[in-house]
Amino acid sequence: MIKSLNIILSIVFLLLTIIICSGQNKNLNKPNVLFIAVDDLNDWTGYIGGHPQAKTPNIDRLAKKGVAFTHAYASAPLCNPSRVSLLTSILPSNSGVYGNAEAKFRKKIPDAVTLMQYFKLYGYKTMGAGKIFHGFNNPGDDQSWDYYHRINRNPNLIQTKNGKIKSKFNGRDTELPHPSLFNWGPIDIEDEEMPDVKVANWAISELNKKHEKPFFLAFGFTKPPLPWYVPRKYFEKFPLDEIILPETIAADIDDLPPFGKKLAREIYIPSTGKNFNVSGDVEHKQIISANQWKKGVQAYLATINFADVYLGAVLDALADSQYAQNTIVVLWGDHGWHLGEKEHWRKHALWEDTTRTPLVIYYPDVIKNATSISHPISLLDIYPTLVEMCGLPTKENIDGKSFYELLKHPNQSWDRPVLMTLGKGNHAVRTKRWRYIQYFDGTNELYDHNVDPNEWKNLSGLTKYNDVIETLKKSLPKTEKNQSYSHSINPK
């Protein structure tokens, strides 16, 4: 009897071991994810062609290897709502997360399961560093990470609350029209002192380690956002007398509704949460009068190139690692940026340049690599796409839709309009041809990208486009959560 019982127990133990080992092996065969965020990066990359002088060889080689989206759009032209939307796949209008002041998104959407949290639930090791959620050295959400690496920042590069820079390396031009807002210039320090280099080095160290579980490794660069301070050698790649300014036209904002004009001329001070106009004038005109336009473009190009160099270092480390053939690489920016287009600077608007951003996905031997896709894609859809790519159960109760099949078969049709939001009541809808913007007061803008890629001519006042507008309106949110913060989009 005892012998029979031992045999039965041995068989049970063997079966349990087989089941556990089978599950572990299945988990180990799942692809890793290298998840790379670049802050405030617009379409000034070589593969998109937003500026002819952009030097982004490492972004471009990833784009050439993988699937490169030329028309990817953020759900919001602001860091926090864009990132929360991407990382939860919940639209700002459904979450109520509209501004940067609402970084603790769990108060708004306590039941949300973030992308990293979902991967963690299904056996992934989730690790992060840099800016993934809004905030450079803050994990943003403890439920999302097994480990979050904090970087010791260079104290000489910390922006103080009054907008000034505590730095013996201060390279700010004294002629800047608003020195507390615009800080840029070359600094004489070594690359290794820059926080983004420390982030990249940490990511490289993780790729050189042996991991017992599939990993979700996320890191985020804080360049090119202001202050545009990077070592001098990056500025020297873009001689000031050779700088090409963005293409613009005079009086570009004259055909905008009042709130559109307000967004174009408005300045938002993050340290105070307040906004103001500069002598009632458009900020762009102030920059021109101070002879700073070329210097601003030079500084932005320099910071983009700086970030690209260290992105390349991480990509090289992945290529040399044991994980090269079983890792999905996702490169994304959180929103766009204006440098004078539509007489506007920064983000905080719903035009093409404030919302368009790079997106590249690479998965060796699985998707249709070495392909470019021009269909408009929302960053909202990255979450369900990665879930499907990694063979995880479909996540329910999210707003995003997987585009995995598009990655495998890029020639198929894709007609999902992209919705973008800047506070309650302000939305843009982007299709392959059209951009429609509707503000809280019902005023609107319409642009035909087939003939007007710069969005210079607002067509909304022409009756022959009424049917187009009515069709695009169907993609606007039917209901919206209230906003509860003071921000630059306050219509008053």
Give the termini distance in whole angstroms.
86 Å
Return residue spans where pLDDT drops below 50 for at least 5 consecutive residues: 16-25, 159-175, 268-274, 485-492
DSSP helix count?
Answer: 14
DSSP strand count: 19
Largest sheet: 9 strands, mixed
Q: How does the helix and strand content classify structurally?
A: alpha/beta
Instruction: Bin the strand percentage.
Output: 15-25%
What is the rounded Rg?
Answer: 24 Å
General shape:
globular
- Roughly what is the average pLDDT, rounded to an integer? 86
Name the helicity range.
25-40%
Descriptive account of the structure:
This protein has 492 residues and is of the alpha/beta class. Helix content is 29%, strand content 17%. Strands 1, 2, 3, 4, 6, 10, 13, 14 and 15 form a nine-stranded mixed β-sheet that branches. It has a four-stranded antiparallel β-sheet with strand order 16-17-18-19, with helices on one face. β8 and β9 form a beta hairpin. α6 packs parallel to α10.
